[in-house]
Amino acid sequence: MIRVGPAGYPVGSKGPIDAVERAHAAGFTALEMQFVRQARMQESTALEAGRKARELGLILSAHAPYYINFNSQSEETVRKSGEWVLLTARIAHWLGARVIVMHAGVSRGGDRKGCTEQVIKGVSSCRDRMRAEGIDEVLLGLETGGKKVAWGTLDEVRAVMDRVDGVVPVIDFGHLHARSGGGMRTIEDFQKVLDEYRRIHDGPLHCHFSCIEFTEAGERRHLPLDRKQPDFSLFADCIRDGKLDVTIISETPDPEEGAKEMQRMLANAKPARRRSQQ
Prior knowledge:
CATH topology: TIM Barrel
CATH superfamily: Divalent-metal-dependent TIM barrel enzymes
Order of helices and strands: EHEHEHEHEHEHHEEEHEHH
Strand order of the largest sheet: 1-10-7-6-5-4-3-2
Radius of gyration: 18 Å
Number of helices: 10
Largest sheet: 8 strands, parallel
Shape: globular
Helix content: 40-55%
């Protein structure tokens, strides 16, 4: 199954319950709640939004605050990072969201192995606290980073998964395109990423997509799909056969319009196998 939806509430939403209803009315099958500035929502509201989402067949996810950095030199930032994850996980639990997405750290001085160890330590602590609260059904989604200093290659995510349970990869294809200097150019490029994903995780794929402007340092800003950097139609061809359970979150500058365009392109996609023979 392929589900598509925007990052954040649809325009005009009056709170999370209304956002769920508007997302469904717009024809979306997924919605990512954005807690990128602060993780706050009343339990009763989250429970009702989750109930409404289940009733309408809408898959919910949540994005944790941007400030998380388990590799910070500040012990206070590391401590708060754990708190931000836990706050988001609690809300996700009330919402019935399967996964929370987060950027886990920044590599200081190029010590990527050391950064991975700090991420493992921080994420493991979060999982222990979630388990103690009985909310460990929520998965921690480690997102691939868009800047070269950002922690989060698929190999780095796999290293955490090897040592901490309840962790899944979240692939941001725009980020991969940016940090590789524009490396997502062909169907084969997308298929290689999907094959690597399958090697490290056999569950549903939760992913982000937008076109992206980049520099030597990596990600600069998100762009509409018509910029084709990378080209969503190539990704659509790779997954159109339905063999992979995928949730796609639009992170284009206009997430709703981006999600609608993704749905149109998916409807017109050809399985990559057939396209490659033409």
